[in-house]
Design goal:
The protein is mostly helical. 56% of the residues lie in helices and 0% in strands. The chain is built from five helices and no strands. Helix 3 packs across helix 4.
């Protein structure tokens, strides 16, 4: 019997952060030295949205990306 994706990657049912947009958001949070909650507050977004992005449950929405770009204009949207 073959292994399922969850058995192969050790995932407990949550999606791995395979989406590069998710990983870039998390990299920005880390680079800025912010907690997920502080990041959400700084961009004017919901804390649950950032939590869902960090867990890989959801991808950032276009409105959320726009908030990130407004709060962090030094970040290139093409990155």
């Amino acid at each position: 019997m073959g292994k399922t994706k969850n058995q192969i990657d050790g995932n407990d049912g949550n999606m791995l952060m395979e989406n590069s947009t998710n990983s870039r958001v998390m990299e920005l949070i880390s680079h800025e030295g912010l907690s997920a909650s502080a990041f959400a507050d700084r961009i004017g977004g919901q804390r649950s949205s950032i939590s869902h992005i960090s867990s890989g449950r959801n991808e950032p929405s276009v409105p959320l990306i726009k908030k990130i770009m407004q709060a962090f204009p030094q970040v290139n949207v093409e990155w």
